[in-house]
Structures are given as C-alpha cells and as structure tokens.
Amino acid sequence: MVGLAASGLQITAARPSIFFTHRIFKSAVATVFNSSNVPSSVKRSASLHVSSLHPFQQNMKSARNYATKANSEASEGKQASVLPIDLTGKRAFIAGVADDNGYGWAIAKSLAAAGAEILVGTWVPALNIFETSLRRGKFDESRLLPDGALMEITKVYPLDAVFDNLEDVPEDIKANKRYAGSSKWTVQEVAESVKEDFGSIDILVHSLANGPEVTKPLLETSRKGYLAAISASSYSYISLLKNFIPIMNPGGSSISLTYIASERIIPGYGGGMSSAKAALESDTRVLAFEAGRKRKIRVNTISAGPLRSRAAKAIGFIDMMIDYSLENAPLQKELSAEEVGNTAAFLASPLASAITGAVIYVDNGLNTMGVGVDSPIFEDLHIPKYEK
User: Fold this and answer.
1) Catalytic residue among 157, 269, 324, 361, which?
2) What span, in angstroms and rounded, lies between the C-alpha atoms of 312 and 289?
3) Of all helices (H) and strands (E), which one includes residue 228?
4) What is the pLDDT of residues 43-100, one digit of tens each?
5) Which of 29, 81, 152, 297 is the most buried (most CB within 10 A)?
6) Is 235 among the catalytic positions?
7) What is d(CA 90, CA 108) in angstroms, rounded to the nearest whole number?
C-alpha cells in the first residue's frame, strides 16, 4: 500500500482517503484514555464519541475529526500530520476491467476509496458476463472498500481498444455474435459517449494487454501475431489518450501497466509481448511530453510484478513466476493487486503532481536484482531470508 510511515508522523483520514482504518481510530482513542497529559474534559468527550459509534462506520467524519484532535492533544499541542489521497470530485475511466481479480479492478477500487467516480470500459465479448455478475452481487465481496461501503461503478461501457473507429472494424467482427447487441465500442465512439454522458474525466487508466501468440518464442512468432500484440498492448494506449485527452481536465493523470519483460528476458513471455511492453514504456515518455505540453496531463506507467489473475493464468507459468519472485525479490512476500491499485491512486493524486514520464516499479524490488539468489551457486554466501 502506498503510504507514509515515519517516527512522529501519524496519518489519519477517513474516506475518501484510502489510508483510514478502524485500527487507526482505536489507537487514537486509546491514546486519549491512557495519556496523563490529556485533560479530563477531553477524556469525557472521548467517552461520548466511543459510545455513539455503533456501528463504527455510522459517523466516519466524526471519527476522523476526533482522531486528529486526540493525537493533537496527546502530543501536547503538536498538530498531527494528515496527508490523505483525496480524489473527491474526480472522475476516472479505467479501460480493461472484465472481472474482479485483476489490476484494473484493484485500481478502480483504490480510486473509488479515494473518492473518485468510476467508469469502466469492458471488452465487448466479456461485457454480458461482467455486467451480470456485477448486477447479481457476485462481486460484492470484492467491491468492499476500507470504510465498509461498496465500490460503485457509475457506468460500464463496451470497449474494444484494438479499433480506433467504426471504419477500422472488419466485417467478420461486426457480424460476430459475441459483438451482437453492443454498439459504439470503438475507442473514438467510447470517448464520444463519455463526453456526452459526463462531459469530462480527470483520470485515464489503460489496463489492457493481449498477445495471441504469447506462448511462442519470438523466433517462432508470426508477423500477424507480433503486430497484434503491439496493437492491443501498446498502440491501444496511444489511441485511448489521443481520443480522451480532449475531454480530460487540465492537470489530469493517465496511467498504464507494464512488465519487467520490457527490459529483461522472461522466457515464456513471447509472441511479441516483451516488445509491446518496451514500446509502451517508450511511448509513456513521449506521451508525457506531448500530453503535458498540450493539456498538462501527467503520463506514467506501473511496472507490476506477477499476479494470479485470470489473464496471467492464460500464459501458463504465472505460479512459477510468483514462486521465483518470493525466492529472489528483496521483499519476500506475494504482491497484492491492492498494492498496485494504491500506487495508481497516488499517481492520480495531487501528491504526484510533479511525476510524469516515469516507470514506477511495484514488484517487491524484483526489478533491482541482477541474478537469481535461489541458484545453488550462491549457497555458500548464506544469503539471509526473511523469517516470519
């Protein structure tokens, strides 16, 4: 989770901040009752607050205000620092959400927890299943936010980011039954629909990647397969930003997702996908300049570590990559989607107002390693391992 932790620095904030938790509030109240420096009047006030919070989430605002006051009193007049990620009043469009266990979903949740309004673009063939699952409550557990509320998705748009406009769509796709019943799903049409429905957005997220020949070595990848990977995984980002930037408010943020295969060899991640990610990172720098100068839009990409998502499982070796990361990364823990989501929320916030054109690694530090320390060749070095 993106946050700050330092001696003497207490961060407390309620929704829309993604850092507020029940534990922080309890700690603040405990500080009041246990401190000999706190006046009795404050302790009586604390008692009233505690008795009135049943359940806890009924009065989040009072909890936040009181926690701040309690920390201030307990520190003998020193005001506690509050550094929330507040995206209240902001609107985000996340392209590439089709289930509840990928990075796109996690980013949507973190943005929602910070107060942003959420719009999503879902691949047309997956649209019906996604909307049905959402409507029937199958995602309710995954929609749960830190304050106990459920993430609300204001609108789901059909989207196929491989096609810029209707003229680009071949007849066989138009006639495909998986696209039947949906309309206005090319990038240009979706941007126009969002403009018509909401006027503008502040945050654009690209959570899209596809390589039809991803399991093939590069030397066995066809031209068609290679170009398909580039089209779906990197050019789609250019197309999204090109069509959405006219309706993005100045000072907005655009974020994509990349992978370490862009700069390191990952056997098994083929079909041109490593090239597509390298292109995405290069494009991020160029787009940061162009979008920044044109509309003060910041453009960054998150290089995320391996995650057991449905999309990643299709590659076939995701479990092996997660095990490798656990053995070799500086931080020996499994990466969570929430950690990537919270990083995206930070990048979308005013706290990251000077960050653009950057590749942000969220992979427990695996990108820093030059060798795999689990190799038998390093046995005599007695490299330490984290013990719980």
Assistant:
1) 269
2) 31
3) helix 223-230
4) 444 443 434 434 444 444 444 443 334 444 444 445 556 788 999 999 999 999 999 9
5) 297
6) no
7) 13
